[in-house]
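Consider the tokenized backbone below.
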């Protein structure tokens, strides 16, 4: 069955950012109301003089914005570009899909934010070097990236000795 959401009927909540430059209003997670399985979507309203989420990209999700009203400046790895009512913007997975909005006007910019969901996603923030494991919101600093086998030496010490054969004894 089709799920229809009327913009005039949606309620919006303020974002809860401790940084005043990041302020938007968001609808409830409409994908839950629609029982969507592989996408998340919201209607968002970006206030005048405010930024959307921090500059970021997804490693395991594609994202799409549809500008319903107003306009905003879009930041991508290719530079800056104005988005206006009716524009549809697709962001691919990976660093080439990095994006952020800034409302440079005196009117709200209202847009639909759609993102695919395929299990766990890793969202990276190039400006701050953070990594976010979604949907869990586990955020780490990327400079702590380490080798796969770091601190994995002596694995036999974690096992009961009666299970582990002495490697020196051979087969």
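A designed sequence for it:
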């Amino acid at each position: 069955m089709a799920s229809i959401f009327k913009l005039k009927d949606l309620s919006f909540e303020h974002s809860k950012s401790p940084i005043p430059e990041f302020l938007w209003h968001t609808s409830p997670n409409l994908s839950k109301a629609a029982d969507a399985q592989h996408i998340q979507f919201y209607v968002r309203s970006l206030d005048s003089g405010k930024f959307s989420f921090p500059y970021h990209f997804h490693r395991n999700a594609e994202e799409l914005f549809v500008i319903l009203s107003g306009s905003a400046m879009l930041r991508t790895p290719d530079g800056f570009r104005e988005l206006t009512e009716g524009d549809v913007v697709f962001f691919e997975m990976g660093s080439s899909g990095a994006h952020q909005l800034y409302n440079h006007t005196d009117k709200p910019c209202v847009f639909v934010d759609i993102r695919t969901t395929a299990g766990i996603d890793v969202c990276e923030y190039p400006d701050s070097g953070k990594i976010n494991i979604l949907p869990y919101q586990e955020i780490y600093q990327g400079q702590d990236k380490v080798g796969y086998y770091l601190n994995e030496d002596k694995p036999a010490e974690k096992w009961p000795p009666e299970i582990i054969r002495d490697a020196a004894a051979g087969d």
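The first helix runs from residue 30 to 33.
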